[in-house]
Amino acid sequence: MSVSIETAQLREPHLPGEAGVWVFILGDMLIFALLFSVFVYYRSEDVQLFSHSQTTLNQTLGAINTLLMLSSSWFVALAIHSARKNLGQVSAKFFSLAFACGFGFIVVKFFEYREKLDAGFTIMTNDFYMYYFMLTGIHLIHVVIGMGVLMFLIATCRNPTLENDNVSVLESGASFWHMVDILWIVLFAIFYLLR
Amino acid sequence: MIQAAKHYISWIWVALIFATGLSWQFGHGLGFGDQYQYAAVAILIITFVKVHYVFLDFMELRTAPTALRLAFEAWAVIVCALLIFLYWSGL
To answer: Which of A74, A89, A107, A153 qualifies as a FRET site for A174, CA 20 to 30 Å off?
Structure first.
């Protein structure tokens, strides 16, 4: 029965979660698109400074955080599929794993920021570091908010029976977390990898 | 849980990890040597291919209403093209 529900949902268009959440996500992503563009524009104005500053970043920590973000998104997607099969407890476990990955991301970011500050790099150092702290900081705020959302989702899917309305709430929160993942995927590329 | 993880999206996750490793290698000189500009374009394209699959399979836009899917796909294409253009203009 549960499999047939999921199959039916796949056959016809299905809006995951609330429409309002998607408007918010698209709006947030448009703002980040502007921030990405501003960063790459100013990079193109002073390639030498930005390239040199980039070499002082810890790429390994950036890569670890990328793996954590991708994994957390994967766990969230699995949680949603489990919730649709009315496997609330399994869903809660997957959301908890996603939460753990999010917490790991924050811990890694803490060490990364501390490493930079100890080495004397601050938001005032130069344009590269201004954008680095600003954009990764705004993203970090999204991660913290997302972890609050994940805690709420864990509580929601611990209900003995998951109703359709509950699943819609889970989908809304999951979509927000995936957006946080996507923003990091782009930030990792433009700050850590682009030379 | 292991049973639940036997889902096609687990393969998407494997592909995303592989793509991350590939873009890491491009960022460290794989294939393009000192011609960083080509590696940068490859990194940006891989990045937005990853974004595309997160949209379709994690955010489930593959089965979402067409208008919503198009809006997000357009975001990925436009931002990718814009970043490549801006990067290239600084060379």
So the answer is: A107
